[in-house]
Design a protein that fits this description.
single chain, mainly alpha, 11 helices
């Protein structure tokens, strides 16, 4: 994997996301309750604080939990909730070590169908149905992962030119369109009393 992404809107962070399957998964995991760019800058910040140029699932899985939480909480914090996110990242890495020998790309490398890949993503700690579909769409739209039926498995997020999620962000203009879509959804939900 060595693809140009523009999700974090930061060249160094995006470079890591484009070459590191684990960084992409961690960025997706962090993408909640913070701006998308902040979430997807997180993997680069974590790698730098670990003194590395990439994330290693084995290292993170075995890291002392209190020290890892402190690493994420150091200013500027990696996430609004650094303690709970540190725990989730470690759980994700422990799962990857246990089920995929620490190789994040193995989650999708040999998936025969979009449905199978979606099932695998749903099994990852911290990945619910929506997050799994969004990541599947990101894999298909920007990272060249195209098992049979991937668009259907990704649901609405797999639609071309949808501008619904991080899967559709290729630069500042598309980021603005995704933000506008999310604001429309929030306004509609608020109007309907949800």
């Amino acid at each position: 994997m060595d693809i140009s992404l523009h999700i974090a809107q930061d060249p160094d962070a995006d470079e890591l996301l484009g070459r590191s399957p684990l960084a992409a998964l961690v960025g997706m995991l962090l993408d909640q309750q913070v701006p998308m760019e902040w979430a997807f800058k997180g993997p680069r910040t974590i790698a730098e604080r670990l003194g590395a140029n990439d994330l290693d699932a084995h290292e993170i899985a075995a890291y002392d939990p209190e020290k890892f939480a402190a690493l994420l909480a150091a200013k500027p914090a990696v996430h609004r909730y650094p303690g709970s996110m540190a725990k989730r990242i470690q759980q994700l890495c422990q799962y990857l070590v246990e089920h995929y020998a620490g190789d994040a790309a193995a989650v999708w490398k040999d998936a025969g169908t979009g449905a199978e890949l979606l099932r695998r993503l749903n099994e990852l700690p911290g990945f619910g149905a929506q997050k799994a579909q969004i990541f599947l769409a990101l894999l298909g739209k920007q990272l060249g992962v195209h098992p049979k039926g991937w668009r259907e498995a990704a649901g609405a997020y797999g639609e071309p030119k949808a501008f619904r999620s991080v899967a559709d962000i290729t630069g500042p203009e598309s980021l603005a369109k995704v933000r506008a879509h999310k604001q429309e959804l929030k306004a509609a939900a608020k109007a309907s009393g949800r």
